[in-house]
Amino acid sequence: xxxxxxxxxxxxxxxxxxxxxxxxxxxxxxxxxxxxxxxxxxxxxxxxxxxxxxxxxxxxxxxxxxxxxxxxxxxxxxxxxxxxxxxxx
Length: 89
Hints:
CATH topology: Non-ribosomal Peptide Synthetase Peptidyl Carrier Protein, Chain A
Order of helices and strands: HHHHH
CATH class: Mainly Alpha
Largest sheet: none
Strand content: under 5%
Number of helices: 5
Radius of gyration: 13 Å
């Protein structure tokens, strides 16, 4: 799941910035402010994460994060929590 989440986030960022995958030097340390991610960009990341099974409650959760790595770690933690037995009824 971690690789799917990482790919989803990186793919979203490339799509938002209208750049083909692999053409940007985006790492876990890359600051979202430096990329110029706006409200619509966060919505795109939110939707793409939902498509790989990450259940975020609001886009605001993403806006509080500072780096690409923060989004990946946060999404992985949510996905792992959803996989715990007894957590979903």
